[in-house]
Each structure stands twice: as structure tokens, then as C-alpha cells.
Design a protein that fits this description.
The structure holds two protein chains of two kinds. Chain A has five helices and twelve strands. Chain A is of the alpha/beta class. Chain A has one domain: Rossmann fold (3-Layer(aba) Sandwich), CATH 3.40.50.10420. In chain A, the strands form three sheets. A six-stranded parallel beta sheet of chain A has the order 1-12-7-4-2-3, sandwiched between helices. Chain A has a four-stranded mixed beta sheet with strand order 8-5-6-9. A two-stranded antiparallel ribbon of chain A has the order 10-11. The termini of chain A are far apart. By secondary structure, chain B is α/β, with parallel strands linked by helices. The longest helix of chain B is centred in the N-terminal third of the chain and has 23 residues. The relative contact order of chain B is 0.13. The chains are: A alpha/beta, B alpha/beta. Strand 9 of chain A pairs antiparallel with strand 9 of chain B. Bound molecules: iron/sulfur cluster. Iron/sulfur cluster binds next to helix 14 of chain B.
Chain lengths: 222, 496
Amino acid sequence: MSARDAMLGRIRASLADRPPVPGVPRGYRTSSPPDVDPVALFSERVRDYRATVHRRAPADVGATIATALATRGARRVGIPPGFDRALIARAAVEVVVDEPPLARAELDALDGVVTACAVAIAETGTIVIDAGPDQGRRALSLLPDYHLCVVGADQIVGTVAEALARLDPRRPLTWISGPSATSDIELQRVEGVHGPRTFDVVIVEALSPALPDPPAPQEAVP
Amino acid sequence: MATLREPVPTFAGTPPFPKAAAAALADRQLRENLRRATTTIRDKRARAVAERDDWEALRLAGAAIKDEVLARLPELLVKLEERVTAAGGAVHWARDAAEANAIVAGIVKDTGATEVVKVKSMATQEIGLNEALAREGIAAWETDLAELIVQLGQDLPSHFLVPAIHRNRSEIRDIFRRRMAAAGRPAPDGLTDEPRALAEAARLHLREKFLRARVAISGANFAIAETGTVIVVESEGNGRMCLTLPETLITVMGIEKLLPRWQDLEVFLQLLPRSSTAERMNPYTSMWTGVTSDDGPQAFHLVLLDNGRSDTLSDPTGRQALRCIKCSACLNVCPVYERTGGAAYGSPYAGPIGAILVPQLRGIARHPVDEQTASLPYASSLCGACFEVCPVRIDIPEVLVHLRGQVVRQRGWRQRTLSQEALLMRSLGLALGEPRRLAAAERLAGLAAGTVARDGWIGRLPLPGLLGAWFRGRDLRAPARMSFRRWWARQRRGTT
Ligand code: SF4
């Protein structure tokens, strides 16, 4: 008998008492309360992870990306093949398009990467990338030490449930909530272990004017 | 060719819980680190959970979904297999540890690789995969910072979530200085014991391995039957590295890790991070379905592991242990775990969940188990804190009592001793649950021990009845002149 058939047989035998299949009580919240502004909440929650968030009108996005890259001292910056090049045209950096795909060592040598995202979640301060043309393959947003992600305000949903409903499970998905972190040494939080150690988010808001930058990020919560 | 590390100690041969626990209790550093860790995480978790007014509804949904998984397990496994295969992955079935290890070693050998990178996985610890691969000449590199510390320190993990919590920063620096060079890129000159510097040293050491790795091995937090999607939840980014860069990915997953539907993640991606790292969301979660051309590994193998899970499933009371999502919340609230640490449990599954899961995985429902395993259901005070925090509402005290019954039934000739022990554990449990009573009990023990301790050890106490029997089963370190609880009370007041 194959291992597969043996295992399935044992499992069936173990369920000889025929335990009932319970209905799933879904009494939890799947959407945000109506008074919540998802863009404001998303910004606040991402900042809680000590990432930097800028909210900008479309016309100001290019300048903000240029300033952010300069602040981080990035000189060679990767973008996915489908990323809107106009957005990075004002930055004083060498732009490297991941097409044909860069070798691992080349990705590792980049100072940073700029991508779009698939969806963002306000309650948890999460962005999800799904390897779409403007986000690139997974390695691109992983190996460089700095990741700047451009998020459309209309891509921000309130909850995890709403995000899952928008996502396609057949695509490779990466959920990112702040920079990588470890508390493995005496529980002291250290940001940046293997993923990009620095993470910036630029939110593009079609309808609102440019807002002043909020105060600097504070202690991560909770 | 990689340098093969020396074999690490395995869990086999761990002394029974009372003995191992006595040794751990004597280690002041371990106890202090653990107390700090569990208290900190416990408080953070409480805040993260309080933020959700629908927490109880999420728990109820989580428990029901997992019960559904168990009730429909054969059908859902077949569906998962079908979906993963359709998406270009290969599915393997492993009845036990030996079979799983042989499958993984075979796949690695077929690629011609002599080393693999690993992302923290309890299932592969459970089956002793690293040691099995070493026997085949394959080096397995742990890439989680804590696992790296444990591996380089040739040590056992002490907590699921922070496995190196028994080590302080200067010990970690020493381990890095002494052992990194033999495993690859050496520690930087002048490495300090600053956590940031230590993390940076690990980053550099492991980056070299990620960039050249051809095969990675992972566990899985969840797998979705209806879509074939596998999910790994992590913090450091080493998971993303392992899941993205190598050409071949092998995932070893316990059969209970399934979820029926994609939608069910809306429950578990809330329950897990808040219960585990006490965050609204962990930094990184990776999800993949089979293989994707031009992105990530081009060969994906999913190994479905039984290794005692179908035995566990056969017990209508005990099977709820298979709902566990390995969040570690129950460890952090357990008064017994807080004092003994993880290694005393003799398995990667420590704390309250270890006490109910391990005896079942080792077949207690079907046949008598060894001494070490049989002692685990007694490693609890039955205070119930574990149930309160469990995101999938496992009634751990209920299962503990049930398993104690099984141990006693299976050991007719030892019934008297064990019943006495059970009784004593119960009264100890009551005492642990109530600070004043424990204080009284410890003072009493301190007084009694003072008369019989030689060289700081209590041998065979000439005590009558229950207490004598209990001490006979244990070679206890004589109670310190200041008991732990009195010491702790003084710590909390800020004096030493
Ligand atoms: S038993 Fe519950 S609390 Fe303990 S690790 Fe498992 S899921 Fe978490």
C-alpha cells in the first residue's frame, strides 16, 4: 500500500466516531467602522512600524520619490519592468529596470527598489505585493536594502478580510507590515535583519491636496 | 563543499520532565531570561488582543474552522494535493519521521546540492531532519536568527517564538565569534554585544548562504485546500529569502495545518500575529501556489507529515490539540514553563501545548509510552491560563487530565505512585495558582530541606507519605536559601 493510501486509511479510521462538521460562526468584523478614514488609519499604522509615510497629490509624487531616495543616499535603484518611469524621472539616481531579470548579485548590489503594490490594509498597516508588472518578481523587492512602495489611495482597504477578497491566491503574494524585525536577542527589537532594512511608503491621493508631513515616527506599538 | 557542523544534541534521551525541570530550575540565568521574556510578551499580547473588540468571535471562528478541518481531513488533503499538483508542485506523503526525512534527502540529492537553507519549522525539528540530512552528507543551515544562535551554540531551542531566549547578548557574541567562521563567513572583527551589531553579523553571515543556496526547506503555517496556497508567517525576512531565491523549495507540513478556504485566512491572519508576536501583523507573510514561471523556485515539493497525527486524531477528547497554530501564547502564561524553560519538555513542542501534544503524537492513545513522555501531562498546575489565551480555544487542562488518566491506566503496577504524584501535582498546582499558598509551601520545603540537604542536593528525603514519594521521583536542587518566589517578590520591589 502506498504511504498516501495508508495515511488516508489511518485518518479515516481515526474519524470512525464521525465528528460533526461544525458551521463556522463568522461573528467577527470584516469591515472597518463607518467613521474610520482608511487612508489616515493606514498612514498611522504604517508609522507605528517605524516606516516613513508621505501622503501626496499625483503631481507631487515624483518630487517626493526623488527626495526620499536622496535622503536614503540611494544611487542605483531598481524598478520593475511595468513601473511608471515618469514617477522616478526626477530622481538623481541611476534607474535599473529588472528586464532582462538581474542576477542575484546585481540585485544585492542595488541601493534600493521602488515598486507599486496590489492592495494595502488600513487596520494592520500592511501592503501586499502580488508580482504584478509594476511590482516585479519577489526577489526584486527583497534583496536591495531599501524599499519604497507607492500606494494608490484607492488601493487601501480597511481590513484583512477586504484585502483577501481583492487578492488572487494564484499569484505569489508578499504581505509587508513595516521593515523586517527581530526580538531574538534579549527581546530587544532590532529593525532590519534580512529584508530591506528601510521601508518608505508614498500614498497617492488623487483628490486631496498635498498635506504636510506628519511628525516623525515614534516607538513601535503595541 | 560546505563544512559539516558537529552533530547537535537531539531531544532523544532528555530525562523525564521532573529531572530536566530540576536542572533548568537551577540555572538562574535561564530562569531570569525566561521570566523577562514571558512577562514582556504576555503583556504585549494582552494589549494587542484588547484592541479587537471581536476577539472572542475570532476565537470561536478559529476553533470551528480547525474542527471542520479535522472532521473533513481526508477529503481536504486530497483536494490540497490536487490543487498543488495542478499548479506545478509535487505532493509527497510521509507516515513517519523516517519516511519524511528520506523523501527530503532524496529530493535534495536529486538536485546535486550538498547544503540547504532552512526557515524555522517545528515540523522539521520534530522529525530530526537536520541530523538526518547530516547523515546523508547534506548541511542544513538554519536562517532564523534565534535558530542560528541555537545551531551555532549546539543547543536546544527553549521557546517556539524566541528559541534562543535562554542566551544573553554576551553569550550570543561569544557563540558568533567562536563558531561563525567554521560555518561560513566569520563574525566581523571587534563584534560587540549590541543586539544591532549581532543582527548585522547574522545578516552578513547568512546573506552569503542565501545568495548561493539552490535548495530551501520550510515549514508551513497554513495551507489552503481549495486553492493549494501555502503560507509562511515570519518577522525577519529569512523566510522570504528561502522561499524566493533557491531553485528548489521543499515544504514539510503537518497534515493538520490545512484550512478549507482562502477566506479562512481572514480569521487566522488576525489570530496568529496578535497571539504570537503581539503585533497587529507580523512584518512578512509569504503565500505561494505551486510554482510561478520566472519568479521564485521552479520546483516545489510539499511533504505531508503524519508522524502520530492520525493517532492523535483518534481520541475524541485529545484531538483538539491538533487545532494548535503554534502561536506560543500558552507558553507565556504558564507558571510551570516560566520556571523550567523549553528544553525540559524533551521535544520542540514545549509548554502546555507540548504537554498535551507530544504524548499523543507518541501514540499514548494506542500503546504505553516511555517515562519521559508519560511525565509530560503532569507538567502543569491546571491553572487554566493556557485555555484563556489560546486563539483556537484548546481546552488544555481538560486534555491534561484526560491524558493523566491514560498514563495511570496504562501503568497498572505503578498506579499507586502515579496517583500519588497526580494528587501532589494537583496540590502544587493549587499552590502555584495562589501566590500566598505557594509561598507557604516553599517556605515549608525550605525548612524541611535544610535538615537533609547535602552539597546543595536533596537526595532521598526521609519524608513520609506523599511528599516523600514525590521527592523520591525527583533529584531536586535544594531550595535556595531565598526561594524563587521570595526572590521574585524582591525583584519586583526593585531590590535584590
Ligand atoms: S495551544 Fe493554543 S495558545 Fe498554545 S501554541 Fe497552540 S494555538 Fe497557541
